[in-house]
Amino acid sequence: MKKYWKFIIFLGSLILFLNIISLWKPFANAYLEYVYPYLADGLGKLTSCLSFPLGEILMYLGILLLFLAVLLLVILLFKRKSAAYRGFCKFYYKLFLFALLVLLFLYTTNWVIPFHATSIYQQISPSCDYDFNDLAQLRAWLISQINESANAISRDSSGNIIYDENVDQLTYEALRDFSNDYPNLSGYYPKIKVALCSDFLDWMGIGGYTYPFTMEATISFYTTRMYYPTLLAHEMSHHKGYYQECDANFISYIALAESDSPYLNYSAYLEIYAWIDNTYMEFLSSHQEEEYLTIHENMPSFSEQVMKDSEDIAKEYQELYESNVNQKMESMAADAAADVARVGWETQDQILDELNYDGVVAMLLDYYQGTAF
Q1: Cα separation values, 40 from 18, 93, 107, 224, Å
Q2: Which of 100, 167, 282, 362 has the smallest count of CB within 10 Å of its CB?
Q3: Which three-class secondary structure string do you get for 156-221?
């Protein structure tokens, strides 16, 4: 047997073995703690040397190569008698298979195995059956925290927020400070990159994306400065091996909320509130009993400063979008991208259950029990 096929069989068998053994949590947990950090940091340092998102370009290249593989196969039906063409196809498909297996190996070592480790949600294992009163008290407490954060953040003479330009380092420090509870958060953090496909991400409702095979984290160009810290922390949590969405949300929110930076506090509390408020309003809309309506009527309100900040944040996004979006592409692809995203979110909800984005609500209630209620 030729060396090529021996290597292909070996690599394919190794990938299969690693995927199977990753289902055993003791192995996945040990891998996340002792092996993954070296792979993530090593690869992250290499790709950080590039100013562009290599992972995104490789994704486009992979799509192109797959299309070419299909095209070559179709042409082969008509040129099967050509020895030269058959030789070229053989070379191409062998190279394609090799590249595919290398990609699958990196995907397995950098995503599949750490993904199967015990999640923070499972470690916390919220055991309390929180009710609407708990949710309402946390919501009221968050409103007060947001109002305080709005007063604490730096502003210019016109009352506009002065955003700290050193936000990346502040965010990384906040995550490292949280490493006593979650050790993987210590160490190196790569530079975040702006996604080339920011328009499509925005239409799909995606703020950022982490590429496991290059360990690069990207964010949408249309990210507002207030949302930026929590999104950055979220993607960096993925980079550190916390791939469950509820875990990444929990880490990003709590780490920034506990930071010494009013800017990070404000960003975190606004995002925490968004999740709590969504669940709160969903419950309220389906339970119109007087006791719940009375609680809602007595709920505190945001300060005028917070309301003005919210308007400014929305205006910032709108100006970014209108001045940079590809309008021709928007008319052709925006609706299709939104439909693809909708199917993707629904599929993820079914697969991940409580480990999807919604699981963070239970984690936040558990974390703030004894503080907010």
Answers
A1: 17, 30, 12, 27
A2: 282
A3: CCCCCECCCCCHHHHHHHHHHHHHHCCHHHCCCCCCCEECCCHHHHHHCCCCEEEECCCCEEEECC
Q: Which residues contact 147 (CB under 8 A, 6 or more apart)?
A: 302, 303, 305, 306
Buried b (16+ CB within 10 A) or exposed e, 166-197: ebbebbbbbbeebeeebebbebebbebbebbb
Domain locations along the chain: 3-115, 129-368
- Phi first, then psi: give them for residue 165, nearest 5 degrees: -70, -15
Phi, psi of 197 (to 5 degrees): -100, 40
Q: Which residues make Cβ contacts (< 8 Å) with residue 275, sequence separation at least 6?
A: 249, 357, 360, 361, 364
Specify the DSSP class assigned to residue 357.
Answer: T
User: Hey, CA dihedral for 223, 256, 269, 135, is it positive or negative?
Assistant: positive
pTM score, whole prediction: 0.90
pLDDT per residue rounded down to tens, the chain (373 residues): 689 999 999 999 999 999 999 999 999 999 999 999 999 999 999 999 999 999 999 999 999 999 999 999 999 988 888 989 999 999 999 999 999 999 999 999 999 999 999 999 988 876 678 899 999 999 999 999 999 999 999 999 999 999 999 999 999 999 999 999 999 999 999 999 999 989 888 888 889 999 999 999 999 999 999 999 999 999 999 999 999 999 999 999 999 999 999 999 999 999 999 999 999 999 999 888 899 999 999 999 999 999 999 999 999 999 999 888 777 666 666 676 566 556 555 555 554 444 444 689 999 999 999 999 8
Beta bridge partner(s), residue 217: 210
Please return the burial class of 78, using the count of CB atoms within 10 Å of its CB with bins 0-12, 13-18 and 19+.
exposed
Q: What's the gap between Cα 274 and its chain centre?
A: 16
Q: What are phi and psi of 42, to 5 degrees?
A: -65, -50
